[in-house]
Specification:
It is built from 9 helices and no strands. The protein has 230 residues and is mainly alpha-helical. It is elongated, with a radius of gyration of 23 Å. The mean pLDDT is 89.
Length: 230
Protein backbone atom coordinates (compact mmCIF):
# COMPACT_ATOMS: atom_id res chain seq x y z
CA UNK A 1 0.00 0.00 0.00
CA UNK A 2 1.53 3.33 -1.05
CA UNK A 3 2.26 6.19 1.29
CA UNK A 4 0.34 9.37 0.55
CA UNK A 5 2.60 12.35 0.15
CA UNK A 6 1.14 15.75 0.90
CA UNK A 7 1.77 18.31 -1.79
CA UNK A 8 3.86 21.28 -0.74
CA UNK A 9 1.88 24.48 -1.11
CA UNK A 10 3.26 27.52 -2.85
CA UNK A 11 3.22 29.37 0.48
CA UNK A 12 5.30 26.65 2.13
CA UNK A 13 7.72 26.60 -0.80
CA UNK A 14 8.05 30.35 -0.59
CA UNK A 15 8.72 30.20 3.15
CA UNK A 16 11.38 27.55 2.60
CA UNK A 17 13.07 29.76 -0.01
CA UNK A 18 13.08 32.69 2.41
CA UNK A 19 14.63 30.50 5.12
CA UNK A 20 17.36 29.33 2.79
CA UNK A 21 18.10 32.90 1.72
CA UNK A 22 18.33 34.05 5.34
CA UNK A 23 20.52 31.08 6.14
CA UNK A 24 22.89 31.96 3.30
CA UNK A 25 22.99 35.58 4.46
CA UNK A 26 23.95 34.41 7.95
CA UNK A 27 26.61 32.10 6.54
CA UNK A 28 28.15 34.91 4.47
CA UNK A 29 27.99 37.23 7.47
CA UNK A 30 30.01 34.71 9.44
CA UNK A 31 32.54 34.33 6.61
CA UNK A 32 33.01 38.10 6.43
CA UNK A 33 33.55 38.16 10.20
CA UNK A 34 36.25 35.51 9.78
CA UNK A 35 37.97 37.64 7.14
CA UNK A 36 37.79 40.74 9.34
CA UNK A 37 39.34 38.88 12.28
CA UNK A 38 42.06 37.35 10.10
CA UNK A 39 42.91 40.78 8.64
CA UNK A 40 43.32 42.26 12.12
CA UNK A 41 44.78 39.41 14.14
CA UNK A 42 45.61 36.46 11.90
CA UNK A 43 44.23 32.95 11.73
CA UNK A 44 45.10 32.09 15.34
CA UNK A 45 42.48 34.55 16.53
CA UNK A 46 39.70 32.66 14.74
CA UNK A 47 37.57 30.91 17.36
CA UNK A 48 33.86 30.17 17.37
CA UNK A 49 33.31 32.67 20.16
CA UNK A 50 35.37 35.42 18.51
CA UNK A 51 33.61 34.99 15.18
CA UNK A 52 30.15 34.90 16.75
CA UNK A 53 30.94 38.16 18.53
CA UNK A 54 32.35 39.75 15.36
CA UNK A 55 29.37 38.68 13.25
CA UNK A 56 26.90 39.41 16.07
CA UNK A 57 25.23 36.03 15.74
CA UNK A 58 24.50 33.26 18.19
CA UNK A 59 27.50 31.09 19.02
CA UNK A 60 25.64 27.95 17.95
CA UNK A 61 25.32 29.26 14.39
CA UNK A 62 29.09 29.13 13.81
CA UNK A 63 29.10 25.41 14.56
CA UNK A 64 25.86 24.86 12.65
CA UNK A 65 27.26 26.19 9.37
CA UNK A 66 30.88 25.00 9.76
CA UNK A 67 32.04 21.67 11.14
CA UNK A 68 35.24 23.08 12.67
CA UNK A 69 37.61 26.06 12.70
CA UNK A 70 39.66 24.72 9.78
CA UNK A 71 36.56 24.49 7.59
CA UNK A 72 35.52 27.99 8.60
CA UNK A 73 38.92 29.44 7.69
CA UNK A 74 39.06 27.59 4.37
CA UNK A 75 35.54 28.68 3.39
CA UNK A 76 36.35 32.28 4.32
CA UNK A 77 39.47 32.30 2.15
CA UNK A 78 37.53 30.69 -0.70
CA UNK A 79 34.78 33.32 -0.35
CA UNK A 80 37.40 36.06 -0.43
CA UNK A 81 39.12 34.63 -3.51
CA UNK A 82 35.88 34.43 -5.50
CA UNK A 83 34.77 37.90 -4.42
CA UNK A 84 38.12 39.47 -5.35
CA UNK A 85 38.10 38.21 -8.93
CA UNK A 86 35.66 40.66 -10.57
CA UNK A 87 37.79 43.72 -9.68
CA UNK A 88 40.93 42.11 -11.08
CA UNK A 89 39.18 40.87 -14.20
CA UNK A 90 37.62 44.27 -14.88
CA UNK A 91 41.00 45.96 -14.50
CA UNK A 92 42.70 43.63 -16.99
CA UNK A 93 39.82 43.84 -19.44
CA UNK A 94 40.46 47.58 -19.59
CA UNK A 95 44.20 47.06 -20.03
CA UNK A 96 43.87 44.63 -22.93
CA UNK A 97 41.10 46.68 -24.55
CA UNK A 98 43.54 49.60 -24.55
CA UNK A 99 46.38 47.48 -25.99
CA UNK A 100 44.09 46.16 -28.72
CA UNK A 101 44.18 49.61 -30.28
CA UNK A 102 47.80 48.97 -31.33
CA UNK A 103 49.03 46.59 -33.98
CA UNK A 104 52.01 44.32 -33.45
CA UNK A 105 54.07 46.60 -35.67
CA UNK A 106 53.06 49.69 -33.71
CA UNK A 107 54.01 48.06 -30.41
CA UNK A 108 57.57 47.68 -31.70
CA UNK A 109 58.00 51.44 -31.94
CA UNK A 110 59.78 53.07 -29.03
CA UNK A 111 57.46 56.09 -28.99
CA UNK A 112 54.39 53.83 -28.79
CA UNK A 113 55.94 51.75 -26.06
CA UNK A 114 56.74 54.87 -24.06
CA UNK A 115 53.11 56.00 -24.33
CA UNK A 116 51.89 52.52 -23.37
CA UNK A 117 54.24 52.48 -20.40
CA UNK A 118 52.85 55.80 -19.12
CA UNK A 119 49.26 54.64 -19.57
CA UNK A 120 49.75 51.26 -17.89
CA UNK A 121 51.67 52.78 -14.98
CA UNK A 122 48.94 55.34 -14.42
CA UNK A 123 46.17 52.76 -14.50
CA UNK A 124 48.17 50.46 -12.26
CA UNK A 125 48.82 53.19 -9.72
CA UNK A 126 45.13 54.12 -9.63
CA UNK A 127 44.19 50.48 -9.09
CA UNK A 128 46.73 50.03 -6.30
CA UNK A 129 45.61 53.19 -4.51
CA UNK A 130 42.01 52.02 -4.69
CA UNK A 131 42.88 48.61 -3.27
CA UNK A 132 45.06 50.06 -0.51
CA UNK A 133 42.67 52.79 0.60
CA UNK A 134 39.25 51.21 -0.03
CA UNK A 135 39.90 47.48 0.40
CA UNK A 136 42.69 47.04 2.98
CA UNK A 137 40.94 44.03 4.56
CA UNK A 138 41.15 42.17 1.26
CA UNK A 139 44.87 42.88 0.90
CA UNK A 140 45.56 41.79 4.47
CA UNK A 141 43.58 38.59 3.96
CA UNK A 142 45.40 37.90 0.69
CA UNK A 143 48.75 38.32 2.42
CA UNK A 144 47.73 35.84 5.12
CA UNK A 145 46.46 33.41 2.49
CA UNK A 146 49.81 33.42 0.68
CA UNK A 147 51.83 33.01 3.89
CA UNK A 148 49.65 30.46 5.72
CA UNK A 149 49.24 27.80 3.05
CA UNK A 150 51.01 25.31 5.30
CA UNK A 151 47.88 25.05 7.46
CA UNK A 152 46.40 22.39 5.17
CA UNK A 153 46.82 20.91 1.68
CA UNK A 154 43.42 22.34 0.74
CA UNK A 155 44.47 25.85 1.77
CA UNK A 156 47.76 25.45 -0.09
CA UNK A 157 45.86 24.54 -3.25
CA UNK A 158 43.48 27.47 -2.81
CA UNK A 159 46.41 29.85 -2.34
CA UNK A 160 48.03 28.57 -5.52
CA UNK A 161 44.79 28.93 -7.48
CA UNK A 162 44.35 32.49 -6.27
CA UNK A 163 47.94 33.34 -7.12
CA UNK A 164 47.55 31.72 -10.54
CA UNK A 165 44.47 33.83 -11.22
CA UNK A 166 46.48 36.98 -10.51
CA UNK A 167 49.52 35.86 -12.52
CA UNK A 168 47.81 34.74 -15.74
CA UNK A 169 46.93 38.21 -17.09
CA UNK A 170 50.40 39.44 -16.15
CA UNK A 171 51.92 36.64 -18.17
CA UNK A 172 49.64 37.50 -21.08
CA UNK A 173 50.82 41.11 -20.90
CA UNK A 174 54.49 40.17 -20.71
CA UNK A 175 54.16 37.73 -23.62
CA UNK A 176 53.29 40.65 -25.90
CA UNK A 177 56.82 41.98 -25.42
CA UNK A 178 58.83 38.90 -24.41
CA UNK A 179 58.26 35.61 -26.20
CA UNK A 180 61.14 33.79 -24.54
CA UNK A 181 60.30 33.79 -20.83
CA UNK A 182 57.27 36.00 -20.07
CA UNK A 183 56.61 33.94 -16.92
CA UNK A 184 59.83 35.29 -15.40
CA UNK A 185 58.87 38.90 -16.10
CA UNK A 186 55.37 38.28 -14.75
CA UNK A 187 56.70 36.66 -11.57
CA UNK A 188 59.06 39.54 -10.87
CA UNK A 189 56.38 42.14 -11.54
CA UNK A 190 53.86 40.28 -9.39
CA UNK A 191 56.31 40.20 -6.50
CA UNK A 192 56.95 43.92 -6.88
CA UNK A 193 53.25 44.79 -6.88
CA UNK A 194 52.38 42.63 -3.89
CA UNK A 195 55.32 44.06 -1.95
CA UNK A 196 54.08 47.59 -2.65
CA UNK A 197 50.54 46.66 -1.61
CA UNK A 198 51.44 44.90 1.61
CA UNK A 199 53.96 47.55 2.66
CA UNK A 200 51.33 50.24 2.15
CA UNK A 201 48.95 48.45 4.54
CA UNK A 202 50.95 49.87 7.44
CA UNK A 203 50.40 53.44 6.21
CA UNK A 204 47.43 55.71 6.95
CA UNK A 205 45.29 55.97 3.77
CA UNK A 206 46.08 59.66 3.37
CA UNK A 207 49.81 58.90 3.35
CA UNK A 208 49.71 56.64 0.31
CA UNK A 209 51.88 58.32 -2.33
CA UNK A 210 50.31 57.73 -5.74
CA UNK A 211 53.11 59.57 -7.55
CA UNK A 212 55.71 57.30 -5.98
CA UNK A 213 53.71 54.18 -6.86
CA UNK A 214 53.35 55.46 -10.42
CA UNK A 215 57.11 56.03 -10.67
CA UNK A 216 57.93 52.53 -9.42
CA UNK A 217 55.41 50.90 -11.74
CA UNK A 218 56.59 52.96 -14.71
CA UNK A 219 60.17 51.83 -14.17
CA UNK A 220 59.23 48.16 -13.93
CA UNK A 221 56.77 48.24 -16.83
CA UNK A 222 59.35 50.06 -18.93
CA UNK A 223 61.77 47.23 -18.28
CA UNK A 224 59.13 44.69 -19.40
CA UNK A 225 58.48 46.73 -22.54
CA UNK A 226 62.18 46.82 -23.35
CA UNK A 227 62.65 50.54 -22.76
CA UNK A 228 66.13 51.54 -21.67
CA UNK A 229 64.88 53.81 -18.89
CA UNK A 230 61.23 54.55 -18.16
Amino acid sequence: MGVNKRKVTSREAGAATVRRAKGEQTRLKILQAVLDVIAREGTRAVTHRAIAAEARVQLSLTTYYFKDIEAMIYEAFHYFSLRARPDVEQFWEGIFAYLDHFSTVELRRVAIREAVCEELAGRGADFLVEQITDKPVGLAVEQVLFTHTRLSPELRQLGELHRRHLLEPLEALCSLFNRDDPQVDAELFFNTVTTLEYRALAMPPDKVDRAHLNSLLRRHIGWILGLKRA
